[in-house]
Backbone:
């Protein structure tokens, strides 16, 4: 028996498992969203004419649902991951890779749903809120905005989970402002005419919003990395 | 050479005001079964957790196969620490958990894992959070043995099991060790059942190493004298007595300290039998408050 036999990088193995876990529950999420969407159209059809694509309001669920999943998964998988002989570094990589892979699936899911809704209900003349930074770019804009929101949601979920794992619950609750903050910043960046940039006197526009969004994701990822890289592992209860 | 060598030098781990480990130095040879003994709170779990890279030491160095295990993908992958909690996905079925370990453990043996489940009468369809304490321990043992990691730690994992399961564990451990030798550390404060497994022993007391020695050497630090009460009393007069048991006219006295050839000769002449001292008795003596 020798140490260090050739083996697939552990972060890839962990990513595969995490993506599978996320995807399984995400499937149920989209099934529920479709049911709600159909129900909303049936209810509204007899009352008022549909003026917007209702699917776009699924953005809140498609942001906070993966956020919640990330909290659950980080608490469930971290102790098992490290006691199974894998490094914290590989855990961080696997979770960030999962966020980067799963985020666009939420973006694609929402854009696909909006496209289907527009095809099925052509009476809805205004596809999206034109005030939105990404709204002017139609389905593509919706995809990008939702992908960024879901990626940030997952990374902030990881950050919230690791904070509760590491610190006293009271301290972790007080830290919710910086740990959830990036999602709120991302909501502001994607859902209106870049008020943060206007307020800070920075240039506005889609390119700048994407740049700012990437910076927010990078900062949240860095915070998750710093909080996790040396964390002591408690026993699973 | 089988298993990996572990070297610990001046290791300290502090939690706020508590010194869980204080200047621990020891070496565990590759391929040996080592006993890590100590009372509750003596630092056994902290020591094993730190070697397994579950936490960072406050001071000191740990080398496993010559390398610091903390965040070393190579070394961490070769260490398997089984704690009583099991460290499993509690709301997933046992089968799913075993598939997980098959994915991440380099030396995992799925057939052996299935055998062990049968041996401990565990259903792969059950979830760990639905198991009793003893069954959860058995699941931990299954994972620890089937992982076949070059360095395997069982941290008091057998304490939750009933007697038949514990003896099954000892038999399985020994049989698998013979077939697949590796470095194994068993930690416990219940010693009588497992002391025959140890090649070497470390006794921790209040975060410090009290004894780090060959198991036979440790046993030779005491002796049990059994024979006619008067003769035994005369022979042990002036020696440090750990315990005395009277069985009618016969008395058994356990003493601490080496027994010289003269005492052996006098004992033979007085029809007194001199035998090895149970490690449990030595442990109790060495770790009782006043002596330590």
Residues:
């Amino acid at each position: 028996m020798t140490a260090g036999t050739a083996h697939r990088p552990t972060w890839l193995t962990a990513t595969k498992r995490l993506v599978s876990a996320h995807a399984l529950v995400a499937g149920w999420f989209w099934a529920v969203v479709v049911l709600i969407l159909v129900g909303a159209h049936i209810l509204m059809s007899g009352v008022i004419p549909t003026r917007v694509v209702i699917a776009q309001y699924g953005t809140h669920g498609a942001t906070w649902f993966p956020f919640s999943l990330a909290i659950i998964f980080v608490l469930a998988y971290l102790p098992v991951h490290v006691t199974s002989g894998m490094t914290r570094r590989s855990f961080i990589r696997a979770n960030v890779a999962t966020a980067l892979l799963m985020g666009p699936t939420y973006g694609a899911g929402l854009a696909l749903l909006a496209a289907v809704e527009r095809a099925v209900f052509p009476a809805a003349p205004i596809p999206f809120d034109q005030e939105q930074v990404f709204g002017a770019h139609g389905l593509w804009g919706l995809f990008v905005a939702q992908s960024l929101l879901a990626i940030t949601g997952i990374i902030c979920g990881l950050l919230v989970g690791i904070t509760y794992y590491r610190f006293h619950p009271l301290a972790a609750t007080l830290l919710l402002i910086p740990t959830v903050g990036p999602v709120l910043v991302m909501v502001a960046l994607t859902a209106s005419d870049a008020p943060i940039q206007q307020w800070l006197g920075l240039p506005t526009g889609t390119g700048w919003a994407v740049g700012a969004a990437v910076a927010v994701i990078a900062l949240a990822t860095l915070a998750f990395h710093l909080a996790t890289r040396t964390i002591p592992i408690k026993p699973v209860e | 050479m089988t298993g990996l060598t572990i070297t610990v030098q001046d290791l300290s781990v502090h939690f706020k005001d508590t010194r869980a480990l204080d200047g621990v130095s020891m070496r565990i040879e590759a391929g040996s079964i080592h006993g890590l003994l100590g009372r509750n709170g003596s630092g056994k779990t902290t020591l094993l957790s730190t070697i397994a890279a579950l936490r960072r030491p406050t001071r000191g160095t740990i080398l496993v196969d010559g390398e610091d295990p903390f965040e070393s993908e190579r070394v961490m992958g070769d260490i398997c620490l089984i704690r009583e909690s099991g460290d499993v996905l509690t709301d997933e079925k046992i089968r799913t958990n075993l598939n997980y370990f098959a994915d991440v453990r380099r030396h995992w043996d799925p057939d052996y894992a299935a055998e062990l489940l049968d041996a401990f009468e565990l259903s792969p369809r059950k979830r760990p959070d639905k198991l009793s304490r003893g069954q959860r321990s058995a699941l931990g043992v299954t994972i620890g043995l089937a992982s076949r990691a070059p360095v395997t730690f069982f941290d008091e994992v057998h304490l939750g099991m009933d007697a038949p399961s514990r003896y099954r564990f000892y038999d399985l451990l020994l049989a698998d060790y013979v077939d697949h030798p590796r470095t194994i550390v068993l930690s416990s404060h219940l010693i009588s059942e497992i002391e025959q497994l140890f090649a070497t022993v470390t006794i921790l007391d209040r975060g410090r190493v009290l004894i780090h020695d060959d198991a036979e050497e440790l046993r030779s630090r005491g002796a049990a004298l059994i024979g006619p009460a008067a003769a035994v009393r005369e022979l042990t007069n002036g020696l440090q007595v750990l315990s005395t048991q009277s069985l009618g006219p016969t008395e058994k006295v356990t003493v601490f300290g080496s027994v010289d050839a003269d005492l052996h000769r006098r004992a033979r002449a007085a029809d007194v039998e001199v035998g090895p001292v149970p490690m449990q008795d030595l442990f109790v003596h060495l770790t009782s408050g006043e002596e330590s």
Q: What stands out?
A: Chain B touches chain A through 43 residues (CB under 8 Å). The mean pLDDT of chain B is 91.
